[in-house]
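The record is given unchanged here:
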Amino acid sequence: MSESTQLVDTTANPAPLGLLGFGMTTVLLNLHNAGIYALGTMVLAMGLFYGGMAQIFAGWMEWKKGNTFGTTAFSSYGLFWETLVFLLLMKSWGWWPGAEAGAMVAYLFMWGLFTFVMWIATLKHNKALQVVFLTLWILFWLLAIKDATGSVLIGRIAGWEGIFCGLSAVYLALAEVLNETYGKTVLPIG
């Protein structure tokens, strides 16, 4: 008689942490892009720690669960926030000249291209996640267009679109927490 051992994953779902780190930081940065307030230490600190480190931690936890999509998404966007903050700070620290306009256009375009492909992968996931990635690749490309043209209007549109993107991630994160906590659909995710 042969015996088989079955392992059961009892670790917590890291996605809400990563989604909240992404979503809340995205909302706060895009309040700046929408013209509500100047870019300052609050956004930069959120970018380093909650948008950056929390998502990197969530990516590591998704790796432990064997989730390639979650690992790639959270680790990549966590590192996006880290690089963005350093791009903004290195010039003011005197470490390096600031990025040229064309360089930031390329940076934002490449993040948009990566996000577009990740959005295609979400078509096998829930509708709420599809909305997060759809609005994120649009946001990256709007920001690239804004940097390429210098258009304040496109920057403002990107800001409001980014606020929606961030709030959609916050919604999905809180839906996952509430639905798991109550063992039923409290907030639908499609």
About this structure: The helical segments are 15-33, 41-64, 68-92, 101-122, 127-149, 152-182. The CA atoms of residues 21 and 49 lie 8 Å apart.
